[in-house]
Structures are given as structure tokens and as C-alpha cells.
Design the sequence.
């Protein structure tokens, strides 16, 4: 019976995560048990009081779920999978790269990426493919300093192949990870992973520590104090961290931005309100304009509402290391506990009309961490959350200022598992019409160039 339930839960998770967790809440309330493949019982909750309890638990009581379904993709040295002191040290090393002056320096990469892409808008525009192109451009510049189209194209193809090969079956059912004469799903994944590894290793090996370079790889190499050549273990460790930043920092933001474009297209009043607020400073190519846009309350509330309704990571799972009581459940070492993020974000007690898209709720109330956690929480909160929000705001502000955005055809997309995260299952096709605010230089470029389709 448990085997059947486990397979049923895995199938329903793979088909529609949001619907599965909603149905479990309807049947069992805010706290319930799910049979997860590879993990057995996982107690999930969306009760804000219990969520707060979980977030406050120390790392000696709760830690990242092990084994992790993401380990084959990211590597066991990934920051996401590290535990205890190793995690704390690695996080401390990487944290400055996503704060303060570093964050502002990335603004140039982001603005350049969206400006370049804006010159080649296709009609209709595939929102997800377009945003993957833009965010990949940004993250490759930030991590490796890559700004040549040919090199970016190699990474783009390798990343796309890898994420496409890591199906929900391989993610959710560890038993499916076996070789089948070199042609099975696991074999295709291993081949795709090796292709991306080869590109990353080549970038690492050809670099010499550069005191002036401001990309993330250069920063990591400057941390080395050992004069000897890099060991295989060191090489793989840096590979794991770069792969994590590359995949998580690209795929998650791209999907959030695709959802954001959908809600801009379907909520024209919100689109107009954002445009009016960010355009109080003239000349969208001026740095003062982007600084003003970053302070827009309406843009901030809009992004937060997108992340509430469409969290790219719909659940958080932790391993229990010491006994802990969660409501009526006594959790023992070796078991698992988690937060059903989508259920928390659609709790009618916290969010009246929870399935309605209403950015103004974030203008009226400041939500606490245990009530709103699109980036996770506690010491495992996504390290790049500030970067992701910064990138979302710059890209959306740039598009809203230049274009009126509408759907090419009616669609009500549902979320599905895609590689690391959740994204829209159906294509979101858009029409973007130039506004008078478009710069003369861009208008001239549009006359000279034929729009190129965005690669899949």
C-alpha cells in the first residue's frame, strides 16, 4: 500500500505540484505527510506558527535534506547541499558577491543584456525563451565575465540540454537513475552534465588570478593561498559552486520574469501604474532613471506578488537531526520535514482572495518571514535573492518603460517542474508595442535590423 501511495504521490507531484499540495491541504489541513520517493515520509506544513518554529530551529536540529534530489545536477559540494560549518564558511565567502557595491556593479550587465535583447524582439515573443536568453547573458557575464556571443552560445546550448535532460522522473524517483546501454534518460543526463562540466573546467583552468577582474570566478580564484596547482578536489568544488550559481541564478529568475510578463499583460492597470511611477525621471538611458525605478513601490509590490503566487521553489525540505515536535507530530532523526510554500502563500487567513493577483496587498502590509518565503528562510535562504530581485526590477522596468505589453493569444498557464524549479508549462506569447518613451537610438536600430527569433 505504501509503495502504491509513494508512486501516486510522485506521479501527482510530477504532473502538477500546486494542485497536489492544494488537494492535500483540503483533505488533511495545513500539516500533512507525503511519501516522497527516496525520502519516505515528509511532514509538510503551511501553518505560519509551525513554519516560524521550523525557521528558528538551529542547524544541529534541522539541516538540508539528505540525500538531495539535486545532488546529481549540482554536485555534493554545492552551497545548497553543504551542512553545518562547511555551509557557513562557504556562504560567508560568497555572500559579499551579492551585496552592496557588487550588486550595483551587476546593474551594468543587466541593463546591457536587456538592451541587446530589446533590439531583436520577435513577434510574437515567447516570454520564457526570451527571459532565459536575457538572464543567461547576465549570469555568464557575472560569473565568468563572458561577453562574446559565440562563447555565450556554447554555454546556452549546454545548459539547455542539461536542464532538459534532468526530467521530473530523474528528480523525483532516484530508482530511475540507472544506465541503459548509453541511451536511457540517465545516460542522456550524464552526457549533458559532462558537456557543461567541460566548458566550466576550461574556464577555470585557463584563468590566472586577476586582481582587477570583477567576475565571480576571478573572486573565487583570488581566495586561494596555496601556490601549488589546483587539485582535482579543489577543481570539482569550484565547479559545484559555479554550476549552482549558473543554474539557480539563471533558471529561477527567468521563470519568475516569464510569470511577471504574463501578469503585466493580463493586468494592464498594474502595468500602467508601474510605468507612471518609474517614468517620473526622464530619459530611460540615464542612470538616475534606473535608480528611481529601483525605488518604485509599485514595481516592488508587483514583483513580490508574482513570487507569492508563483514561487519557483514550491516547497522546502529539511532533514531532522534531533527529535523535534511539530504540532501533533513527533519527528525523529532520520525523518524529514518541510514547508509547503505554495500552500503558505495561498493561505486565505494571510492573503484574502489568495488566488487573485493583487500587488497592492504588499503596499498595505509588510509580511513576516514565516508568512512569505519565496527564497526559503533561515541560514539556508537563497544567497542570491537580492540579486534576483534587483535583476527582475531592472529588466521589468526597462521593458515597461519602452513597451505596452499584451498577450498574443489567451492562455492560462499552469506551473510544472522544469529542471531545478517550477515554470509555466504552456508558452506565454506576447505582443510588445513601442511607446513614445523609446529612445531615438533604439528606434533607429529597429528600422535598420530585422527582428531575430529568440532561440528555444
Sequence:
Amino acid at each position: 500500500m505504501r509503495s502504491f501511495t509513494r508512486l501516486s504521490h510522485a506521479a501527482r507531484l510530477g504532473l502538477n505540484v500546486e494542485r497536489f499540495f492544494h488537494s492535500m491541504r483540503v483533505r488533511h489541513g495545513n500539516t500533512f505527510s507525503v511519501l516522497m520517493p527516496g525520502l519516505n515520509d515528509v511532514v509538510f506544513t503551511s501553518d505560519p506558527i509551525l513554519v516560524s518554529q521550523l525557521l528558528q530551529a538551529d542547524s544541529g536540529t534541522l539541516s538540508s535534506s539528505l540525500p538531495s534530489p539535486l545532488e546529481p545536477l549540482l554536485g555534493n559540494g554545492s552551497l545548497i547541499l553543504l551542512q553545518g560549518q562547511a555551509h557557513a564558511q562557504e556562504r560567508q565567502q560568497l555572500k559579499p558577491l551579492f551585496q552592496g557595491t557588487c550588486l550595483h556593479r551587476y546593474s551594468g550587465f543587466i541593463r546591457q543584456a536587456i538592451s541587446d535583447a530589446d533590439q531583436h524582439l520577435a513577434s510574437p515573443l515567447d516570454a520564457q525563451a526570451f527571459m532565459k536568453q536575457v538572464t543567461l547573458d547576465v549570469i555568464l557575464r557575472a560569473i565568468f565575465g563572458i561577453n562574446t556571443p559565440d562563447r555565450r552560445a556554447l554555454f546556452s546550448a549546454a545548459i539547455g540540454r542539461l536542464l532538459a535532460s534532468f526530467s521530473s522522473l530523474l528528480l523525483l524517483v532516484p530508482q530511475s537513475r540507472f544506465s541503459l546501454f548509453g541511451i536511457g534518460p540517465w545516460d542522456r543526463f550524464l552526457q549533458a552534465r559532462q558537456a557543461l562540466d567541460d566548458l566550466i573546467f576550461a574556464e577555470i583552468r585557463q584563468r590566472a588570478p586577476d586582481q582587477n577582474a570583477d567576475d565571480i570566478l576571478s573572486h573565487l580564484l583570488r581566495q586561494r593561498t596555496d601556490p601549488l596547482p589546483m587539485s582535482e578536489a579543489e577543481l570539482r568544488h569550484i565547479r559545484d559552486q559555479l554550476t549552482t550559481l549558473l543554474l539557480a541564478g539563471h533558471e529561477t529568475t527567468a521563470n519568475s520574469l516569464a510569470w511577471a510578463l504574463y501578469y503585466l499583460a493580463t493586468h494592464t492597470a498594474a502595468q500602467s501604474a508601474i510605468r507612471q511611477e518609474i517614468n517620473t525621471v526622464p530619459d530611460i538611458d540615464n542612470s538616475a532613471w534606473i535608480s528611481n525605478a529601483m525605488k518604485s513601490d509599485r514595481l516592488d509590490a508587483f514583483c513580490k506578488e508574482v513570487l507569492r503566487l508563483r514561487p519557483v521553489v514550491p516547497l522546502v525540505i529539511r532533514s531532522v537531526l534531533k527529535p523535534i515536535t511539530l504540532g501533533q507530530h513527533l519527528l525523529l532523526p532520520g525523518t524529514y520535514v518541510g514547508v509547503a510554500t505554495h500552500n503558505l502563500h495561498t493561505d486565505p487567513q494571510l492573503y484574502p482572495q489568495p488566488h487573485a493577483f493583487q500587488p497592492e496587498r504588499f503596499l498595505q502590509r509588510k509580511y513576516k518571514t514565516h508568512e512569505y518565503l519565496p527564497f526559503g528562510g533561515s541560514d539556508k535562504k537563497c544567497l542570491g535573492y537580492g540579486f534576483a530581485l534587483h535583476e527582475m526590477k531592472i529588466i521589468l522596468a526597462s521593458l515597461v518603460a519602452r513597451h505596452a505589453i499584451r498577450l498574443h493569444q489567451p492562455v492560462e498557464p499552469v506551473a510544472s517542474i522544469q529542471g531545478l524549479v517550477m515554470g509555466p508549462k504552456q508558452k506565454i506569447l506576447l505582443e510588445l508595442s513601442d511607446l513614445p518613451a523609446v529612445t531615438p537610438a533604439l528606434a533607429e536600430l529597429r528600422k535598420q535590423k530585422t527582428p531575430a527569433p529568440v532561440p528555444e
The domain at 2-448 is CATH 1.10.630.10 (Cytochrome p450).
